[in-house]
Write a structure and sequence with these properties.
Blueprint lengths: L17 E7 L2 H11 L4 H4 L1 H4 L11 H14 L7 E5 L2 E2 L8 E12 L4 E10 L2 E11 L12
Antiparallel strand pairs: 1-4, 2-6, 3-6, 4-5, 5-6
Length: 150
């Protein structure tokens, strides 16, 4: 997944603006995430183990799915220079190997005095929400305030 960078400033944002990405999850993504984080829970890595769980097979790490939100924040909305302040996450359903996760981040609120944006974050597989929550990010300012048209 290569994302072209989109650099937005606080002044470029508006409530309702949204960006989306899609990522098909591979076994190597899950193995790589386990190596990177040290989370080697066998529900993610062992089909034999995972088959005996209520999921019936391997699932992706919940935070792997959440990291796709970070990809949107750091590359598309708002993009380079955005700083995470906080994130809530609600894990609704498992993500499996070969699932395509569609991620949408949308501006819910702008806080001009601190150059912050509150964002809705939703991850879906098909029509099913697998993860949702909200992020608060600090957004770089261009130093130029937009003037509302009359």
């Amino acid at each position: 997944m290569f994302l072209e960078l989109q650099n937005l400033y606080f002044e470029d944002l508006a409530v309702g603006r949204a960006e989306r990405i899609s990522k098909t999850v591979s076994s190597s993504d899950i193995v790589g995430f386990a190596e990177l984080t040290g989370d080697r829970n066998p529900i993610h890595l062992s089909q034999h183990f995972a088959a005996k769980t209520p999921f019936g097979g391997r699932i992706a790490h919940g935070l792997y799915t959440a990291s796709l939100i970070s990809a949107v924040l750091g590359t598309r909305l708002p993009g380079p220079g955005a700083i995470y302040i906080s994130q809530t996450l609600n894990f609704r359903a498992p993500v499996r190997i070969d699932d395509t996760v569609d991620v949408e981040v949308k501006v819910l609120e702008l806080i001009p005095e601190k150059f912050r944006a509150r964002l809705s974050c939703i991850c879906k597989v098909g029509d099913e929400v697998v993860l949702d929550g909200e992020a608060l990010v600090k957004v770089p300012s261009s130093g130029v305030q937009k003037v509302a048209s009359a």
